Amino acid sequence: MDRAVSIFNTCPIRMQIMTKSLALLSVSFVAGAALVAGPVGCSRDTRPTETIATMDELPTEIRSAVLESPDLKLGFAVYSRNCVGCHGVTGDGAGPAADRLTIQPRNFTTGVFKFRSTPNGQLPLDEDLHRTIRQGLKGSSMPAFEFMPERERNAVIAFIKLYSPKWKTEIQNRQRVLLPSAAPDNLLTEERVWRGRFAYVGMGCQHCHGMTGRGDGASAFALRDDWGNPVRPYNYHRGAPKGGATPMDIYRTFRTGVTPMPNYQSSTLGLVTRDLKPAVFGSLVPEEQALIEPYVDSLPTQAEVEQWSESAPERYEQYSDERAWDLVAYTLWLREQSKPAGKHSAAIWPHRAASGEEEPASGQPSTGSETQSAPAQDPTTPDATGSNGN
Ligand code: HEC
Ligand code: HEC
Fold first, then answer.
1. Which of 312, 339, 345, 347 yields a CA-CA distance of 20 to 30 A from 105?
2. Are residues 168 and 194 both part of a single domain?
């Protein structure tokens, strides 16, 4: 919340809640506190210091809906206190604080969302919205409303749905992407991490995320999201992923896609086979090739995998799923590598730790051309592009 607080402390807005119903409601205060309290000592700012969110400012249709429903009234109250400064009273993401933010607040009127358990382009499930609001989006200014009561979260979710007609017309189409119920045990093994590295390069993740995962691939600087805003690929070495940092979170995010990152389906993951070896090894230094080789040679050929897709669909799905988990393991491992010494989780190489052996000598996978030293920065430290610090 550092960012949110500092934004509001430098005074862009003063919220005055004017609706009658609001005074009566006890509304969660967590991230909205600074917002509602308004600026203190803000002489430098030349902009209007007052923004008043009233029911009157709501688009007519939305206002009528709100007036008819106590739940939506509560939803608007929660929104006014906690969200309007960024997401705006018309829900277009252009609240008074928005022009100070590098990563723009979501425009709710388009009905497009990044973090979903549903395929790219579909509306998210309610549980996705709950997670976003509860956990926030790390590395952006979207705060975590950790202590907001569920009733208020339900209400504000119902309220923001009023901003896009898609929530009436397309809600039936929502399909949950098939997600496993739990991550495999013992995810961070050497085998998985190195195969993950192989899949990473084989699938071209480096074009956006860069060879070492620093978010500096060849296409990294030209990317725009579905709203036309520039967006940088995730830097694996800096800060938590927005959609959550557990293995399941990372699996879900990259299986379902985050505009402009495509979603990775089984048909794509199924292309990660031994046949990719010449192409992948072409971009790796010999030391890294040697580390990866044993785990790649045991992969099946493309022809074998393709055959499963016809004759043994379950096996094919399982194979693709394993490749997805390899990528999750690689992601988590890169994150671990960037933690300052002493903060490494002991579980990185469990089998080695148990036998008292040392960690792999070569450390982080390398292109040979880039410096590999881990930044002396805690990866939970917010990204420079703005952050909630939670
Ligand atoms: C300090 C600014 C700020 C405040 C306050 C704020 N948000 Fe956000 N919110 C953002 C930003 C920025 C994003 C977009 C982040 C991104 O795209 O990476 C966002 C994105 C979202 C998303 C979209 C997630 C997705 O999957 O695309 C939802 C839903 C959301 N916010 C809900 C809320 C609600 C509800 C509140 C109030 C309870 C709120 N936000 C308060 C800045 C804010
Ligand atoms: C077309 C460019 C592109 C490609 C290719 C790409 N990504 Fe991304 N990825 C992005 C962008 C952009 C983001 C950041 C989105 C955001 O912050 O809103 C991202 C974010 C992520 C995140 C963090 C998500 C979060 O919750 O914040 C992970 C993990 C990730 N990518 C993994 C991968 C993997 C693994 C591959 C290859 C299989 C891959 N990406 C390929 C562009 C790409």
1. 339
2. no
